[in-house]
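[Q] Does anyone have a clean structure-token version of this?
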Amino acid sequence: MSDAFTLTPLRALTARLVTHDWAWAEANAAAIARNWERRRAAAPAMFDGRVLLARACRVTEGVCAVELFETAYASFLAFRDAGSPDPEVTNAFAAVAPWTADGAALLGLMGGQTANAGQAYFPCGTPDRDDVRPGGRVDLAGSAAREFREETGIGLAPDAPEDWVLVSGQGQRAFLRPVRFAEDAATLLARMEAHCRGEDAPELAGFLTVRGAGDLDAARIAGFARAYLAREFAAAYG
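[A] Here you go.
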């Protein structure tokens, strides 16, 4: 596990949309444009839509409150590629962490047309305007469930537990929602792969089954996912 990440169990998670004049993006407009041209040359299918980043995150007695603001995807990508130089802004996102009946975790392998080509992590996406509800509430639980369904074809049961683990580090705040499915790894994997084969342009190139600490390939698996899985496997196997 990387020491750059901290893990915090949460009993509740709230998020809201706020206005924020992002000084870093304004000061680095030219660099953002150059970075976008470079990225688009490597992956022409990328689209410069609008996404939400976090400007504040507070945890009090297990309750996390996040403030998110809207920006261009190109700005976010340049910010991340530069090593997240603004300490007040983080890439905050939510993801379902799928566990199978036989104790494995499943990760998605990002396709070559994406910004994270070749990386493996839990199916997820950066929150956007589709996740904003009346009154400015940002539905991070809904974002996680939507992304998981879109990328795997599997919906969550209405009574699926909503416990969270916040993994913080390297300019990220990953809100992970562990969900244990009734199927074993082979069965759940087959369902996910069938979904991808039926899509015209799947975001994922495939899936990775992880059964223990020995499977946590640092060259392939994103740091936040490795940090979370290392802790879970250590707790399970001692």
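[Q] Thanks! Anything notable?
[A] The domain at 6-237 is CATH 3.90.79.10 (Nucleoside Triphosphate Pyrophosphohydrolase).
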